[in-house]
Amino acid sequence: MPQPRPPYRVGPSEFDIDPDRLEVAVARYDQGKGLIGGNPERRPRWLHPLPPEPASVFRLLESSPEHRQRLQTFLTAAPLEIEIGSAYGEFILDWAAAHPERHFLAFEVKWKLLARLAKRSERRGLANLWLSDDDARYDLPRLLAPGSVDVFHILFPDPWWKPKHQARRLFVPPFVDLLAQLLHPGGMLRVATDVPGYGEVIQDLVEGHGAFTPTQPQLAARFAGATPTSRQAFCEETGRPYTYYYFVRR
Ligand SMILES: C[S@@+](CC[C@H](N)C(=O)[O-])C[C@H]1O[C@@H](n2cnc3c(N)ncnc32)[C@H](O)[C@@H]1O
User: Fold this and answer.
1) What angle do CA 60, 21, 169 make, to 5 degrees?
2) Which numbered atom of ligand 1 lies nearest the CA of 233?
3) Is 67 a pocket residue for ligand 1 (Cβ < 6 Å)?
4) How do residues 192-216 score in pLDDT, each as one tens digit?
5) Each residue's pLDDT tens digit, 20-51
6) Distance CA 228, CA 232 (A)
7) CA of 6 to the centre of ligand 1 (A)
8) Which domains does the chain have, with CATH numbers?
């Protein structure tokens, strides 16, 4: 059944960077500055219930030790691909179904979207997909060993236009350090955006990092059969340009 089209905004034409706020965000990154929903360690409780265990959905600070152990086993049992910001899940549900020999972990902080994703995954019997509504930035360094990820998919990340929200942007130097640490040599960071200024920032940060090759557009062939995300479909319908980047871990 076709999904309802989300109410996408196009955003201002200029992608601004507020250097002072970004400096604070980077300086306080390890204390959880910019995490969506705040630092989960200081959260008194979670308002929304997750599907009951053993469904393949977790919150790092809420799930039982047994459930987290199942997750840890899953994360190391096959080549691992991670999506950050799955939203409606068009891409990850089809991609996981098409690659039963690989394992997938998808993060989506919006609980309603996550709950819908979980239902659709269960309906399709996807045993190779785990989900969380934690902020991926909190979980990744706590869950995964260095070099344990094969592919990161970060498709149309929020640009967070307002200066006061810029600390929430994924692409800042400590986040690129994290991706570099978690990908194994030869692993891939696949990113898309329709915000040209953000694309430039991402490309500068990743290519300037030293751990990644310049983007390799020919690697798009590996994802030729991938279902477009909902934001990509919106861009295609409205003629809005977008760019995919494929950075390989050296
Ligand atoms: C602009 S939407 C793009 C969604 C989808 N990838 C697409 O292309 O249609 C970005 C999504 O990422 C989610 N998100 C943003 N930051 C996140 C984070 N740190 N961890 C997990 N999800 C995040 C948002 O809730 C939102 O659903």
Assistant:
1) 45
2) 9
3) no
4) 999 999 999 999 999 999 999 999 9
5) 988 998 999 999 999 998 899 988 788 899 99
6) 6
7) 13
8) 19-248 (3.40.50.150)
